[in-house]
Amino acid sequence: MRLCGWVLRSKTIGRVVIVEVSGGDVRPYVLVGKQDLNPELYNTLSTLPLGSAVCFEGEPAREQKSKRGTEFEVKSIKVYAEPIEPLPVELVGKVPSLLETRIKYRWLLLRNPVEKAIFRVRQSIVQAAREYLVNNGFMEIHTPKIVAAGAEGGATLFKVQYFEREAYLSQSPQLYKQILISSIPRVFEITPYFRAEKFNTVRHLNESWGIDVEQGFIESMEDVMNTLENLVAYIINYVRDKNKEELETLDVELPRVTTPFKRLKFEEAVDILRSNGVEVPEGEDLSDQAERELGKIMSEKGNDLYFIVGFPWQSTGFYYMREEDGHHTRKFDLDFRGLEIASGGQREHRYDKLVEALRLKGLDPANFSFYLEAFKYGMPPHGGFGLGIERLMMQMLGLNNIREAVLFVRDRTRLVP
Ligand code: ATP
Ligand code: AMO
After folding, report:
1. pLDDT digits (tens, 9 = 90+) for 57-113
2. Which residues are catalytic?
3. Domain of 26?
4. Which of 63, 182, 247, 367: disulfide with 374, CB 3.0–4.6 Å?
5. CB within 8 A of 255, min separation 6: which ones?
6. Total tally of structural domains belonging to the chain
7. 3-state class of 416 per DSSP?
8. Is the whole model's pTM more than 0.90, yes or no?
9. CATH number at residue 9
């Protein structure tokens, strides 16, 4: 077989040279050249500069002695490119602890098994999600990322000049996935979210990715929560089964996930926190510190993943259905060890109520006429959610900073690479 990659590490021990090549697998290919057996190959391998791009012909060795990767018996090797400057970062051993360096040189550090493993898990998450959703009758859609109206509040909109008009980068496919429920019963999109989050936190990006789902003809919010918990369980168990090498490389143990997840009413969450001495001001959303505390308390009871349901209407988006009591909404969050990884809920599908909700939230229905029109011609009860891919990765892999979960970071200070 022919395999290709980059020379990651090279070591000569007496008459034996061992070269590690970082290629398509998590673990490197290990090429062994023995002077006594094949002097020509030994010479070529011994003089390969670190970082060279090479392809080799060979077969996996019958005896696998290396702990670092798969050993190959090499028949021939060809060099395609050599570095013209020394590598700017150390690619072997432990990945640099300085996040700054990791972000700047991620494209090169991906030759390191640890860095590569993170993004192979990301790829599996997307693949598992697509597999689960398609198998359950959801159709994959693509909606515009240059939009005329935001759905998640004006404060985090990025403005763009769209010819003579002002437009925005899409914060979420919310309005479009709902519009499509007027003709397709189940849709999903794997999509970027652009949000002008002004602060630097370890769990916010300005360009992040989500798995967005919308489901029509629901009986209640429970239908949507079922879809989300089954999807998350499917994704985590998929990675657990298919990414054993990656998880081992990252030193991560992923317990098997079972459903259903615990449902906690918002007021219950507040009570639990207060009885544990955490202050929660009346009428406010949970602070991130309160969320983390709640995560610890829930994990101790064996609930790493849990829903918080029934948020006060004043703190939620206009599109969530308001309960009869006027105070609560059919909105839920899904938290994973104290971090919100998804939110969603049942939507207001009744035209008049939706117009009223826009007004009550201080928004001008005229700006949403393209959206409202879809509610005039038989819009069924529906609901959905957005699941943050990087947030899910953080909690699955124990990453401390969301910036570790994205190839090219977009935050307040980073626009390159
Ligand atoms: P999302 O914006 O996706 O709904 P979130 O995690 O930002 O999720 P919020 O409900 O907006 O959740 O906020 C939860 C807590 O996090 C709040 O206490 C809020 O003060 C804090 N928070 C939200 N955004 C930021 C930010 N950009 N920087 C610092 N703190 C933030
Ligand atoms: P929400 O605003 O809660 O809901 O976003 C859904 C999920 O997306 C992730 N997320 C982010 N991750 C990193 N950086 C960010 N700046 C960021 N913003 C959001 C989080 C969050 O839980 N339209 C609704 C969803 C719906 O109701 O269908 C929405 O966007 O994991």
Report:
1. 999 999 999 999 999 999 999 999 999 999 999 998 767 779 999 999 999 999 999
2. 195, 197, 203-204, 340, 343, 391
3. 2-87
4. 182
5. 304
6. 2
7. coil
8. yes
9. 2.40.50.140
